[in-house]
Design goal:
Blueprint: H1 3-37, H2 42-56, H3 63-80, H4 83-100, H5 103-120, H6 123-140, H7 143-160, H8 163-179, H9 183-200, H10 203-219, H11 223-240, H12 243-260, H13 263-277, H14 283-299, H15 303-320, H16 323-339, H17 343-360, H18 363-473, H19 477-483, E1 487-492, E2 500-507, E3 526-534, H20 538-558, H21 564-579, E4 587-597, E5 602-609, E6 614-617, E7 620-623, E8 631-632, E9 643-645, E10 652-656, E11 664-665, E12 670-671, H22 674-684, H23 689-704, E13 713-719
Antiparallel strand pairs: 1-13, 2-3, 3-4, 4-5, 4-8, 5-9, 6-7, 6-10, 10-13, 11-12
Helix pairs in contact: 1-2, 2-3, 2-4, 3-4, 4-5, 4-6, 5-6, 6-7, 6-8, 7-8, 7-18, 8-9, 8-10, 9-10, 10-11, 10-12, 11-12, 12-13, 12-14, 13-14, 14-15, 14-16, 15-16, 16-17, 18-20, 20-21
Length: 720
């Protein structure tokens, strides 16, 4: 872009920043006037802390002004004995030091506040201080220490049920794993943070999570997913007119192009961020942006244009002890001087890079961060055991009090009974015969009760045996794994037996579908997988599922019908002729998929009755086609359609019944619904199949809570 064309844009940005700054300066001037007139008490401490907060949010103000009011707040807090005000001033100052790069000074300030907060047992401010200290260590690249403080903070956040701060802790832990290149854990923690912030409807912090997920997916080399999250963040920041936030998103989008090798497209994004950041006190992002500009120009073969960016980044990183960013500057300068054939300078910067890289990425540091997560899990388990012990003790004391009360009441009753017995004894003989009759009646009731219990046991034994039969007909996991190695099956019947079922079979060799018009391929292996929801649940549903499995097996294995839509047509006909003579609409909704395994590809075809398969490809969720009619007697009688799916390696395919989405729960006792289920699948689709199954089961149980499960649940996930 030429200078004449870019000038209006630059002037517009500067005008916006200037106008915003003028408003802020007026607010600061007003606060300063109020502070000067305020009496020496706790209210003045609050005013001083508010003034410091306003200064910290304003670019271009000398930090000396901030620390002048900070020290005045500390002195007045000590003088008036208002220690909470002192702690909160130190927490705010620690955050300001993070922004301006004074990490060691910020930790000294925060450690003094932490000691006072612990002395006062102020859990809320202990949590805030631990989070700040951990963030400062993370900014300097001391990951094991940073993680240690964040896991301590996590204990307090969970105990206080402080969702906002819990999301902040998850956010920093995700960033630690970003810097250690552990993309799976980085995505996991940032998704946890995003879930909480979405629930709190905190759009600004939602955009921060989008940015961090963009970074995480870049590490995973999922650049399309990264671009998706960066673009979402930019949309929010643009709507909020948050210039610094836009700069973060611009840098992220530029980095996606940089990692894909499209350096020419990356530079305009980095320059947009540069225009905003050069007026900012955010040292960390400024250095990152300068390194991006240096690297992009260097990749384009322009070392002279890259040099001033790298030099400025190096100077800022050295003065603020930013090890991660300094490492990037050193390696960039080493490559730059090598390109210019200045091997002496290239060797000097390579040695500096190697020294920092060994400090940051040594195996002991990585091992310690992992062990901290393990130790934190152990501490959580110990905490749960302690709480359970305390709960048991309290329950025991309550039970003892209850027993004492019962003893007193029983004693009173006994005395009253003895008194009444004197009067009752006169009528005893007259009622003796009646009592004998009552005794005989009681014995009869006991006999009937025993008969009922025996019948109930026989019924339960029969149902459990039916469960064994049903389980034998369901697809065995080893059989599914043999054909689809990467899969999970989440199967949760409402009762002992289920109306939902999953079933699989294979066809070793066929040359012609007896009901199709064209010969199929000579490939000898076809694999079928069904995920279906029969009418009803419990015992009636189980009978229907056994019948439906039998008819599908009959169609494929006996009748030689191998096209999925024709299998559904056949089963529908058998159901109508067998059990739907009196206008009963029994049958099932479901999906039958056929996988044809060739030497270098997989052909997937399917039929779908009311339920649609889901495909997630390149971070996008696609609901595949379905027929809006059941397999059984319904409003429509036309033939089912055959659908084809084009898949590529890494795609996720999901099949599910309506039980998960229809489950009542949550704080308002409403249905989970399909869109939140699809969103959840999109969030977790990059995780391992085992982790996906565990998260789906955990989320279902959390949503259901104490409510009863309303229907059978079946969810199948397949990775190509």
């Amino acid at each position: 872009m030429s200078f004449s064309r870019s000038l209006p844009v630059v002037l517009l940005i500067l005008f916006s920043v200037f106008g915003f700054s003028q408003t802020k300066f007026k607010k600061i001037d007003s606060l300063q006037a109020v502070v000067l007139k305020a009496p020496e008490d706790t209210n003045k401490v609050l005013l001083l802390n508010k003034l410091c907060a306003s200064i910290s949010r304003l670019n271009g103000v000398d930090s000396a002004s901030y620390f002048k009011y900070f020290r005045e707040s500390i002195d007045l807090s000590k003088k008036s004995g208002y220690y909470r005000g002192e702690i909160e001033a130190r927490i705010a100052a620690g955050g300001y030091c993070t922004t301006i790069g004074k990490y060691s000074y910020g930790r000294n300030i925060l450690n003094s506040g932490l000691a006072k907060a612990e002395q006062m047992r102020d859990s809320s401010n202990i949590l805030a201080t631990l989070t700040r200290i951990g963030t400062l260590y993370w900014q300097e690249g001391y990951y094991s220490i940073a993680a240690e403080y964040q896991y301590k903070a996590l204990v307090y956040a969970e105990a206080l049920k402080d969702k906002s701060r819990l999301s902040s802790v998850y956010n920093v832990l995700g960033n630690i794993y970003i810097d250690q290149k552990d993309c799976r854990k980085a995505v996991l923690y940032h998704i946890k943070a995003l879930d909480i912030r979405t629930g709190l409807k905190d759009s600004l912090r939602i955009s921060h999570s989008y940015v961090n997920l963009g970074i995480s997916y870049c590490i995973c080399h999922r650049y399309d997913s990264a671009t998706f999250y960066y673009s979402n963040a930019l949309a929010i920041q643009t709507k909020k007119r948050n210039k610094i936030g836009q700069a973060y998103s611009y840098d992220g989008l530029g980095n996606c192009y940089l990692l894909k090798g499209d350096y020419q497209s990356a530079i305009p994004y980095f320059k947009r961020a540069y225009v905003v950041l050069k007026e900012s006190d955010d040292i960390n992002e400024r250095i990152t942006n300068l390194n991006f500009l240096g690297k992009s120009n260097l990749k384009l073969g322009n070392p002279d244009e890259a040099l001033p960016y790298y030099e400025e980044a190096k100077t800022m990183a050295e003065s603020s002890n930013k090890l991660i960013e300094l490492k990037e500057s050193y390696v960039g300068l080493s490559e730059l001087y090598e390109l210019k054939n200045d091997f002496k300078e290239a060797h000097k910067y390579h040695k500096l890079y190697t020294a920092i890289n060994d400090t940051i990425n040594n195996k002991e540091t990585i091992r310690k961060v992992s062990s901290l997560e393990y130790n934190r899990q152990i501490e959580q388990e110990e905490k749960i055991r302690t709480l359970e012990t305390e709960k048991t003790r309290i329950a025991h004391e309550a039970e003892v009090k209850k027993q004492r009360m019962i003893i007193w009441l029983v004693s009173i009753v006994v005395v009253m009974v003895l008194i009444l017995s004197l009067f009752i004894y006169r009528e005893y003989k007259a009622k003796k015969s009646a009592n004998e009759i009552i005794t005989l009646q009681k014995q009869e009731v006991e006999n009937q009760k025993q008969i009922i219990e025996e019948k109930q046991k026989e019924i339960l034994d029969s149902i459990n045996y039916a469960k064994q039969i049903q389980n034998a007909l369901l697809a065995h996991h080893d059989f599914v794994d043999e054909h689809l190695p990467e899969n999970f099956i989440l199967f949760k019947p409402k009762d002992i037996v289920s109306g939902d079922f999953y079933w699989a079979t294979e066809v070793k060799s066929y040359s012609l579908d007896v009901q199709a018009s064209e010969p199929i391929t000579n490939n000898p292996q076809l694999f079928y997988l069904a995920c279906c929801d029969s009418t009803g649940h419990g015992v009636p549903g189980a009978f229907m599922s056994l019948l439906n499995i039998g008819f599908m097996s009959e169609a494929i294995n006996e009748k030689g019908i191998i096209s999925p839509e024709l299998v559904f047509n056949y089963v529908r006909g058998r159901l109508i002729s067998s059990i739907s003579r009196d206008n009963q609409k029994d049958g099932f909704d479901g999906i039958l998929m056929r996988f044809e395994f060739g030497q270098d590809k997989i052909i997937v075809e399917y039929a779908a009755a009311n339920n649609a398969p889901l495909l997630i490809s390149d971070g996008k969720l696609i609901e595949l086609e379905k027929d809006k009619m059941p397999v059984g007697k319904g409003e429509k009688t036309e033939s089912f359609k055959l659908h084809k799916v084009n898949l590529k390696k890494g795609d996720m395919l999901y099949l599910y019944t309506d039980g998960y989405a229809d489950q009542f729960g949550g704080s308002k006792g409403k249905k989970f619904k399909y869109k939140p289920l699809n969103d959840l699948l999109l969030e977790i689709h990059l995780l391992s199949l085992k982790e996906q199954s565990l998260i789906l089961n955990q989320r279902f149980e959390e949503w259901k809570g104490e409510l009863e499960q309303v229907d059978d649940v079946c969810v199948i996930g397949i990775r190509v």
